[in-house]
Amino acid sequence: MTAGLFISFEGIDGAGKSTHVEALAQAFRDAGRSVTLTREPGGTPLAEQLRVLALNTAMDPLTEALLMFAARRDHLQQVIEPALARGEVVLCDRFTDATFAYQGGGRGFDLAVLAQLERWVQAVDALPAGQLRQPQLTMWFELSPEAAAQRLAGARAPDRFESQPVEFFRKVADGYARRAAGDPGRFARIDGSLPREQVWQQVLDAVRRKGWLA
Ligand SMILES: Nc1ncnc2c1ncn2[C@@H]1O[C@H](COP(=O)(O)OP(=O)(O)O)[C@@H](O)[C@H]1O
Ligand SMILES: Cc1cn([C@H]2C[C@H](O)[C@@H](COP(=O)(O)OP(=O)(O)O)O2)c(=O)[nH]c1=O
């Protein structure tokens, strides 16, 4: 049976990642793969409810981190693990790197606590004890916070994160950079400042380099 693939999309708000998730899903379908396209926080009825709370309600940083990981646990159990067990390609718009970047970098929340939550939440039945479920590839869209804010201006109503100042997103970007430095083989850096077609080529190249698409 074909092995499942788990690919995540990350970057600050407005970096351009959501623009390419559906196109990558179609490229995998064209290659004969079944695709589960999903997002965090969200992806299940419960996790989507937690998303509404997390994105719209003021709360302390630990509560925020716990909600993100609670949503993630449900999402893993209900959607991601079953899809991977069926041999599907799972494309996920954000995963745990976002928690390290936003709650850790942006909010300045304790990274050791996040790492402990990660160990609890991403230990899954399909993996041997001590191994955690992680994406095999993370598309990391990089764009300056100024350029990202400009793209988002007028594009959609900002949520609790998107309405943060540029300095917040600089810290989020630093959070992503630290996370990427800790696991460089998993991250593909995508230059989000280029025109859409060139960004798409980088996305496709990252998957081709892994040998997952011709
Ligand atoms: N390469 C690009 N050049 C210019 N604008 C872009 C590019 N990619 C996406 N956009 C636009 O920027 C905005 C944010 O893109 P989006 O994919 O929603 O970002 P994200 O999912 O990372 O928050 C959207 O209005 C989108 O149409
Ligand atoms: C997954 C995740 C997202 N977030 C934030 C980042 C985004 O601002 C927001 C929702 O992400 P996203 O789905 O990218 O928003 P949109 O659909 O509006 O582009 O949640 C966290 O703070 N921590 C997390 O663990």
UniProtKB/TrEMBL annotation:
InterPro entries assigned: P-loop_NTPase, Thymidylate_kin-like_dom, Thymidylate_kinase
GO biological process, one term: dUDP biosynthetic process
CDD domains according to UniProt: TMPK
Known catalytic reactions: dTMP + ATP = dTDP + ADP
Residues annotated for ATP binding in this entry: G11, I12, D13, G14, A15, G16, K17, S18
Gene Ontology molecular function: any one: dTMP kinase activity
EC number(s) recorded for this UniProt protein: 2.7.4.9
UniProt keyword annotations, A-Z: ATP-binding, Kinase, Nucleotide biosynthesis, Nucleotide-binding, Transferase
Domain (Thymidylate kinase-like) ranges: 9-202
Pfam families to which the protein is assigned, alphabetical: Thymidylate_kin
Gene3D superfamilies in alphabetical order: P-loop containing nucleotide triphosphate hydrolases
GO cellular component: cytosol
Protein's job: Phosphorylation of dTMP to form dTDP in both de novo and salvage pathways of dTTP synthesis.
Family assignment from sequence similarity: Belongs to the thymidylate kinase family.
NCBIfam families associated with the record: DTMP_kinase (TIGR00041)
Protein name: Thymidylate kinase
Species in which this protein is naturally found: Ramlibacter henchirensis
